[in-house]
Amino acid sequence: QPVWLQFASGQRFLTWGILVFWALLGFRLLWIQGIKSDEWLVKPALVKMEGDFRRFKQNPRIALLLEKFPRGTIRDQNGVPLAVSDCQILRDYAQTDSTMLNPNWGVDLDQDCLAPNGRIYPFKEHTFFLLGDYNTRVKAGYPAAQYLEYDLETSAYLSGLTLSKGFRTVEMILNNKSDSIKVQRERYDYRELVPLLRAQDRYPYYGKAGELATRKRDLTLTTDIRLQIEAGRILEAHTPKGKKSALVVIDVTTGGVLANVSYPLPKDVFTHFYRADSTVTMDLSTHGQYAPGSTFKMVTAIAAMRKTKSVKPVLEQTFICKRLPDGRVGNFITGYGRPIRDASGDAAHGNIGIKEGLIVSCNAYFAQLGTYFVKPNALLQTMNYFTGIRLCDPTGKNACDDLNDSDRRRILAYSIPQVSFGQGSLLASPLGIAQVAAAIANSGKTTRPYWILAEDRPAFEEVLSSASNKIIAEAMRGVVQQENGTAYKTFKGFSIGVAGKTGTAENSKPGTHAWFAGFAPYSGAHKIAFAVVVENGGGGAKVAAPIARELIEKAKELGLF
Length: 561
Hints:
Layout: H1 3-6, H2 8-35, H3 37-41, E1 45-48, E2 54-57, H4 60-68, E3 74-75, E4 81-83, H5 87-96, H6 109-112, H7 128-131, H8 152-158, E5 168-174, E6 182-188, H9 194-199, H10 207-213, E7 219-220, H11 225-238, E8 245-251, E9 257-263, H12 268-271, H13 273-279, H14 284-287, H15 297-306, H16 312-315, E10 319-323, E11 329-331, E12 340-341, E13 350-352, H17 354-360, H18 363-383, E14 389-391, H19 405-419, E15 426-428, H20 430-441, E16 445-446, E17 461-462, H21 466-481, H22 488-491, E18 499-505, E19 513-520, E20 528-534, H23 540-557
Parallel strand pairs: 3-7
Antiparallel strand pairs: 1-2, 3-4, 5-6, 8-9, 8-20, 10-11, 10-13, 11-12, 14-15, 16-17, 18-19, 19-20
Helix pairs in contact: 11-23, 15-18, 17-21, 18-19
């Protein structure tokens, strides 16, 4: 047997091994450079950070590419620029309309245009909670405001991206092997940018790259910056020293938010950036959580009206408010130990119905209405229509957001007398209460409040029939028009028809939260709805209602109705 035959089998094995190796290598190259080339071009690398933690890092060419195309301009509903990447846009707008971009509105174009690059916010603290600051990204990791510049979808749109399903994936992983703390790790899919990455600097762009490069990036908001600034000035002038306050104004016709202001204004963001992270907290108008007090009686009234097909059974449902043994007025609730009391100094209201109960703001009436007539399920169903109104676990064992409907029904089972008039385990934001007022102003129809003008804006849904809604609206008109109404003194002689509801909410701190919510004009074709709260500020009629009165006057001056 020849010697070479002794090695033949080994040679065949080696030959086939080499062929398989090169075949696999070729297939791998085809997979990376051909079949999956787009994915690999933008695939992030998993980079080891401090300790054992690993985070995804993107191809630096992606960041360079996004910087090449300036972020879109954000404008208010009247076209006023609120955020720009090129100061020339502000100068051009000032040439066509000089009424807004001037010192009267706190704008200093010469100072704003000194910055060599970056994002420019001409109205600064008046739009911070709405937009954020893309230059410093202060509070970007603390999502307690709208912060549209930080929002993933909005920010992507401003950069010319459309977020397909799966663009962002999030996983919770261990921070390191030595502890059990989990942190969030995010991964982004930028395959949409591949045509531009491949085109590089070959101008002009054609095809898909051209479509991406010229894609619309500008954004228009429902906000009216004039009202936003004036509302801030009103809060600054009328909020008691050392107190906080907030307000929201909604366009009843569209459901869009016209203004949302939180006081104190976050001036440190633009004047003392180094301390802003500690001094600037949250947007109280959208994320503040307060006991709503008697403004919640609007919700209980809606829930009562939803219980029957006609208004007659509700109108005939009367309850007694009487003098209690301790001299206060109110009534006892069957099965509950402590009596429900009205505000100190009130006279007994007697046997009253729902309209008078709203006008005089009788706690005893609404505690009985909620307990005996509405009941937990119906009240909870009505609450679920509105943003930012929620029940919390009074024991503190569970976070408010962790409660399901079963948990909430359990809480309502023993707290419905208090919750029915806006106390107990109940919290609400000014945005949520303003949405309730907007629903009543809109004949019982509501929609989720929004800030971005778009073709696919949220649809309205009917919470209450127009006939039933009319009863509540008339009662709210009586609050400011009738002599026994809780806001009568504040609006006496006021030329604009207003419907409203006062609120004075007890809480764990000294001083009650002052509320006033409602809508104006009462009989106009175009209405605004609003909610005002002054944190631990006192009585709603004395503190919040005057703020609302001035706000309504200013809205009329600006032609908003």
